[in-house]
């Protein structure tokens, strides 16, 4: 009797799973200090929910590994010890640091994870910024060329005192790409994975492109334009994300490695490219280069496109996105 009852429950459970209709599943959490949003289509929503669980778990894993806010992360260990001795890290982190150096090279130094040598002196929630003297003293620590990497031992060493690194300008895009890889393993072919201003699109949405809006720098409820996209990475960096104002000056989280200060020629940069790791790395570099030099640089890479909103509200496009005249 009990065996028959158990068999009935099993059959009912199998029926419930098999009869579940294909549908969109969605999840939103706060991880890596930002909003994480995942939306995916799955033939079986139960499996779809498991896929979202896996994506969010991986986001938390990456945060624990790469956040400079967590004292026990490997990034914090690097910042604490790498001026004294080589610090061995996970191969995954080592490879992302190598990727970061690649973006430093192709953006002519505009993207540089060692910006944190000065960047740590800013506290945006408390409206704290360094003095000119503090910036001058810390600025020599910014130079990606002083990162000494040992591929055999996956170790990182600083070649200059006072150096720090921060992967906040590339880790979220990387996490989005990882999220898409995980969803694919669960059989997902249509999805969006978003971490703050960075997204990775997988396939389309119900047979139509995903509509990605570029927000107005001064009004989060307005958009400058909407772009139909699919199967790409897209990242927006803006001076409105983390900032405070003092004496008519906006101190925001995007720091020019050459000056240790926030640039003000640009309000936002949106990059479209093959992966979110690519687009996030490029977005900071183009922002710092400015509209003219930034567009010039991005157009040397045909797989990338850019939309730049300058300080006067003018919208600049790379050739691949230029609207017809």
List the helices and strands and how they pair.
Elements: H1 2-19, E1 23-31, E2 34-42, H2 45-66, H3 74-81, E3 87-88, H4 91-106, H5 116-119, H6 132-138, E4 147-150, E5 155-158, H7 171-185, E6 190-195, E7 198-202, E8 210-216, E9 219-229, E10 233-238, E11 243-246, E12 249-252, E13 266-273, H8 276-289, H9 291-298, E14 305-310, E15 315-317
Antiparallel strand pairs: 1-2, 2-6, 3-5, 4-5, 6-7, 7-10, 8-9, 10-13, 11-12, 13-14, 14-15
Helix pairs in contact: 2-7, 7-8, 8-9
C-alpha-based Rg, rounded? 22 Å
Mean pLDDT reading: 93
Structural class: alpha+beta
The H/E string reads: HEEHHEHHHEEHEEEEEEEEHHEE
Looking at this structure, what is the CATH superfamily of one domain?
ApbE-like superfamily
Number of DSSP E strands: 15
CATH fold-type name of one domain: T-fold
> Could you give the order of strands across the largest sheet?
1-2-6-7-10-13-14-15
Fraction of residues in H or I helices? 25-40%
Q: How much of the sequence is in beta strands?
A: 25-35%
How many helices? The count is 9
- Low-pLDDT stretches are 1-19
Q: From the 3D coordinates, which CATH architecture of one domain would you assign? A: Orthogonal Bundle
- Kindly, what is the distance between the CA atoms of the first and last residues, rounded to a whole number of angstroms? 78 Å
Shape: globular
Give the C-level CATH assignment of one domain: Mainly Alpha
Query: Describe the biggest sheet?
Result: 8 strands, antiparallel
